[in-house]
Design goal:
There is one protein chain. With 138 residues, the chain is mainly α. The chain has one domain. It is 71% helix and 0% strand. It has five helices and no strands. The longest helix has 31 residues. The chain is globular and about 45 Å long. The mean pLDDT is 92. It comes from Pan troglodytes. This is AIG1 isoform 3. Keywords: Membrane, Transmembrane, Transmembrane helix.
């Protein structure tokens, strides 16, 4: 689970959330939410994920599946999540992530495709990092 989902998804959430937040906070985490979600909880959801994933990777060796199986799994998860986000929009008329409202359909397709590619890259990065950490211990 760490190899195929926790590492790539966790790093993705931290990176993409804070990049969009730095660009335009209102597009991903409107100030209105500060009235309901305290700052420490926001960091709990969007920041502390990364150090805990890295601690987990450093303290436990993870056996990665074959590269094709791992990439297939992360692509399946990515596409499934994108389909869920689109389904929620179809049913409710609202995007789960407010920034999706501000970009056109073509840009959404590019964004979703880019995020899937990024997830694959992060999977490979996790594999390389895991091998680096644990091969040097021998």
């Amino acid at each position: 689970m760490l190899a195929v989902l926790a590492f790539p998804v966790g790093v993705f959430v931290v990176a993409v959330f804070w990049i969009i937040y730095a660009y335009d906070r209102e597009m991903i985490y409107p100030k209105l939410l500060d009235n309901f979600i305290p700052g420490w909880l926001n960091h709990g959801m969007h920041t502390t994920v990364l150090p805990f994933i890295l601690i987990e990777m450093r303290t436990s060796h993870h056996q990665y599946p074959s590269r094709s199986s791992g990439l297939t799994a992360i692509c399946t998860f990515s596409v499934g999540y994108i389909l869920w986000v689109c389904w929620v929009h179809h049913v409710t008329g609202m995007w789960v992530y407010p920034f999706l409202e501000h970009i056109g359909p073509g840009a959404r397709i590019i964004f979703f495709g880019s995020t899937t590619i990024l997830m694959n890259f992060l999977y490979l990065l996790g594999e390389v990092l895991n091998n680096y950490i644990w091969d040097t211990q021998k």
